Amino acid sequence: MGAPTVYDVAKRAQVSIATVSRVYRNPDTVRSQTRDRVLAVARELGYVPSGNARGLASRSTGVLGLCFPDYADPEVEDDGAADDPEQMLYADEITRGMERAARRHGYALLIAASLAGGPESLVAKVAGRVDGFAVLARTVPTEDLEIISRRLPVVMIAGPREIDHLDHLEVANADGEYEMATHLIRDHGLRRLAFLGGTTDSPDAEARFHGFQRACAAAGLAVPDEPDTRGNFTQADGRAATDRLLQRVGQPPEAMVCANDQMALGALQALERQGLRVPQDVAVVGFDGIPLGRMVRPSLTTVTQPMRKLGEAAVDLLVERLGEPNRSPRSMLLPVTQTRRESCGCPSPAPEAGLSRLG
Amino acid sequence: MGAPTVYDVAKRAQVSIATVSRVYRNPDTVRSQTRDRVLAVARELGYVPSGNARGLASRSTGVLGLCFPDYADPEVEDDGAADDPEQMLYADEITRGMERAARRHGYALLIAASLAGGPESLVAKVAGRVDGFAVLARTVPTEDLEIISRRLPVVMIAGPREIDHLDHLEVANADGEYEMATHLIRDHGLRRLAFLGGTTDSPDAEARFHGFQRACAAAGLAVPDEPDTRGNFTQADGRAATDRLLQRVGQPPEAMVCANDQMALGALQALERQGLRVPQDVAVVGFDGIPLGRMVRPSLTTVTQPMRKLGEAAVDLLVERLGEPNRSPRSMLLPVTQTRRESCGCPSPAPEAGLSRLG
DNA sequence: CTGAAAGCGCTAACAT
DNA sequence: ATGTTAGCGCTTTCAG
After folding, report:
1. Which Pfam families does the UniProt entry name for this protein (chains A, B) (predicted)?
2. Does the C-beta of A356 come within 7 A of strand C?
3. What domains can you pick out in chain B, each with its CATH number?
4. Residue A3 has what pLDDT?
5. pLDDT digit string (tens) for A28-82?
6. In the prediction, which pLDDT does B151 show?
């Protein structure tokens, strides 16, 4: 009881398999009478063309891929908030942007997030099934990427230009953090700033720290060599890192600049638990612009990335390169915006959404 | 300059293609010495297994699919809010739930939204590349589904049980709307309610209307045969339908019960433009629970669907059936919740998110 | 406009 | 442990 194939349809419709194929690929090259007969038989038999066979024979799939790391905060998954749309994070927004853009270009999107187990399998899984794909930084070992990108268009999102012949997309991490830190120093008059960094293998987090350093230097403050503390980007890490920081001797900082929003949220929690008020005692700022940041109290001041646009740009680059495989590698830097809310000491912003914005 | 294949690797590593294949599928069945040699050659050559060939030969892909209609409100896409996460709609939440669940089960997710052009191609595209897939109601012609589902596990989300041998998922539309309408009537003392319906081909919208009718009946009010006006689910439709309603002779209704949130948002705009205050002059309620509903002013009272759970349940059903192909079709009804905000006349709720909820 | 035939790259028995 | 041999279902010249 295997699924019907071109052969079954061909036989039943009294034509060759080539004709069946044509009916689906170039309907116009088949006499309409023949075509109708084939189509009729096809539905009668429940024939569905095999995408795999098609891809194999034609060397193209009409599918674009996206690989991203398993960013999910475990604690977020487990509690009752699992159904809260506000939890949506970085990768989801990029997915969304890519899906939209892919659709416009007539492509479907294959999404794969790495999970415990070989990352090898992750890329292989995707790479073998798409015409090209995007990778979020730190998802795939550079070496694997190096190999695969020799065979397939790959665009690297939000990482360093690890491989120089890849198309590459990034946001203005350093400049964005520079501007944010400068805001804290100049507009709020803060001087003792602490930086809650990410892991050293994250180029984005490092770039943000560099921006922070530059701001300190520009303001004539001491320039730290290293972040005051680090975490692995989750809320839990942010809490832990903040606790560690507070336990150190000396007074708490006047401001905490966090490498991403999730850790900033964790910092908010840790500070609250220590009885410190934000922003009166300590200002807190994040980076990313996740939706949850605007819902918490105090609402989170942050540097907002154009996440959706990243996804769209990735698809655009992919499609471009598919059309022109030998074009020289292209790199784009997308701008970020400053989102000033309560946690830095700025006044609570006016309602951010209202009917006026809807139409 | 074709991509290297098993043959190239086999020749260079002095083994047969079968061995190369084994190295990737069952590494343990190959002597480690041989394996290392093959792997070395593979990376040297830049070999990446073809997912298509694999799928063809093994009849399984490790990919699950999702088809949904192109719900996007055009006006939402076009304006500057394109990067606003609050715009996220129904299908996106389901996507998210499916992606998460698929990942847990070791599957990747293929997403395809219909676009102008043959829906035929949409299903074919997905169906031929996945081990099973989910379809949002009204995305794919029933006839096509009927055919495809004979060959592949399909779960239908949020539609009627159009095809009785399909696994099927829906939410408590009628009960949810019944409860909402009853709230308006009993708790707010409203009596002249108008229903802004969807298109007649949407079973969800119709079910909601039935729930509305039941509430009217239960309260001893006149029971309408038909929605007072209808729209095609977008904000623009909601505005237009509301304008039409208001232009009709007679006084405006005391409440507008809308078949979905987007139209309710449109209704809010139309009422505002007519100088009517919500909820003082007219109460407005929606259905779905899209994020934007909580950001608008007045915030939207609505019946919230467990969208993410729908996605997860879809994957679970798919995986179950993949494991047990002949299991009898299963149908699940997911509960909805009442979300009372300002637009029905309830007091503005306490801040919905705070640190307390985060850990 | 239609048919014949040669693959596309891999997996899966079945041998050895 | 490894090799041989068939396909998997379709696209694609090349003929006719």
Report:
1. LacI, Peripla_BP_3
2. no
3. 1-47 (1.10.260.40), 58-171+308-334 (3.40.50.2300), 173-305+337-358 (3.40.50.2300)
4. 86
5. 999 999 999 999 999 889 898 999 999 999 999 999 999 987 765 555 544 444 4
6. 84
Q: What is the CA radius of gyration of chain A?
A: 26
CB contact under 8 A, A53 and B49: no
B17 Cβ within 7 A of any nucleic strand C atom:
yes
Task: Verify whether the Cβ–Cβ distance B85 to A93 is below 8 Å.
Answer: yes
* B307-323 helix and B90-104 helix, angle to the nearest 10 degrees: 40
What average pLDDT does the segment A321-327 reach?
90
Q: Is the CB of A34 under 7 A from strand D?
A: no
Distances (CA, A) of B96 to A255, A323, B336: 35, 30, 18
Q: In this structure, are residues B306 and B334 in contact, taking their beta carbons and an 8 Å threshold?
A: yes
Question: Stated in angstroms, how far is B128 CA from C16 C1'?
Answer: 37
Which of B46, B115, B236 is nearest residue A151 as measured by Cβ atoms?
B46
Write out chain A residues lying below 8 Å of B70, CB-based.
103
Task: Give the C-alpha separation, B158 to B172, whole Å.
Answer: 10
Check A127 against B51: CB less than 8 A apart. yes
Residue of A125, A234, A352 to mutate for B, most B C-beta atoms under 10 A: A125
> Which residues are within 8 A (CB) of B154 and not within 5 positions of it... i.e. 6 or more apart?
B132, B133, B134, B135, B145, B148, B166, B167
Residue A349 has pLDDT above 80, yes or no: no
Does the nearest atom of strand C lie within 7 Å of B11's Cβ? Answer: no
pLDDT-flagged residues of chain B (< 70): 1, 71-89, 115-121, 349-359
A182, pLDDT greater than 50: yes
| Cα–Cα dist B66/B150, whole Å | 17
End-to-end Cα distance, chain A: 54
Q: Which residue blocks in A26-129 are alpha helix, DSSP H?
A: 32-45, 51-58, 74-78, 90-104, 119-127
pLDDT for residue A72: 56
Record: contact A48-B124, CB cut-off 8 A = yes
Of A103, A236, A266, the CB nearest to B115: A103
Q: Is B205 helix (H, G, I), strand (E, B) or coil?
A: helix
Confidence at A264, pLDDT banded by 50, 70, 90: very high
Give, in degrees to the nearest 5, the angle at Cα A227 between A225 and A230: 145
